[in-house]
Specification:
Blueprint: H1 8-25, H2 31-49, H3 61-68, H4 72-78, H5 80-93, H6 102-160
Helix pairs in contact: 1-2, 1-5, 2-3, 2-5, 3-4, 4-5
Amino acid sequence: MSPNEPGPRAGAALAQLVGQALAHAHADSGSEDVAEVKAITDAMVRLLIGAPLHSDGKLTIVSLAVEAGLRRNKLTHKHTGLKDLFYALIKARGSSPEPASEAAQARGRKQQEDLVRVRAERGELRSQAQLLARIVQVLEIENHRLKETNAALEQQLAARAGVPDLAGRRQPRP
C-alpha cells in the first residue's frame, strides 16, 4: 500500500468524521436518526479496523447492519448515503472484503459471552430489587397498622384514666 492510498485506519477515521457531521445535521430531525447514524458509523469504524463486536466482521451491508444493531433496510432505504460511503471506503481500501482475524473473532465471542453473563446478572439484580421493594412496602403497611393500633390503645388508656386503679392501693396482707 502506498502512502497516498487510504488504509483501514484512514477509512475508519473518514467514516467517523462523516458520521459526526451527519449526526450534527440530523440533530434537529430527532434523536432516533442521530442514534441510528451514530450506530452505523461506529459499526463502520469497527468493521474497517477489523474489531467487530456483534457481527462476523465481513465488509458487507448485512454485517454492517448487524454490527450497528439495526435492520438492513435502515441502510438500504433510509441511510443510503451511509451505505454508499461504506461501499466507497471498502473500494478505496483496494482489497476484497475479508473476515476479521481469529484473534478479533475470539475477542468478539468473549465479549458476547460477557454480555450474556452481564445481562443475566442484571436481570437477577432487577428481580432482587423488585422483591426488596415489595418487602419494604409490606413493612411500611405493617408499621402504619401498628401505629394505628398503638394510637387506639393510647386512647383507650386515656379514657380509663378517670377510673381509679384499685390494684395499686392494695395493702399487702400480713
